[in-house]
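Anyone opening a protein record will find just a pair of labelled lines. A complete record is shown below as an example:
=====
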Amino acid sequence: MPTQETLSATDNCSEKVQVIKRQEERQEKGNKVIIYKWEASDECGNKVLHEQKVTIRKTSQPTPPTGGVQPPTGTEPTQEIIVYNGVSTESGSENYLKFEPIENYKNLQIEIFNELGQKVYESKSYQKNGEVFRGYANVKGVFRKGKRLPTGTYFYVFKYQNITGESNTKQGYLYVR
């Protein structure tokens, strides 16, 4: 709340100018109103009044959300997912189909198909708990589950959700050697 300032006044009639300041408080339409008044007068009987009216309005406190889990705000990822699509069946910790960054995404699901459109791999929680594609089939069908896939081009469909629950799909190819 602003405080009442001290005003000064000058006058051509008299060198002595008296400034009296007053403050009034009242309620108007449920709001607190403060009126600051300054009255300047001289020895010749001249007077001038200056008023400043400050209205303090009541505002309601924000109401916390009720029921359910609310998504965090201001943390939506701004980075697009990058795909490292070269896969080697040789041993090594980084020899897998990798998506980055995934920290701000959830429900990572992938399906991988050979060039004939036959599914050779799927995961409902990709890159979680070491679940990654390293060039080996994990579904029964054309190739036996757990067997190394032939060198060549494969295709993936990667589905994921951002932190607000919006679903996204990324499709592309990868090369297995």
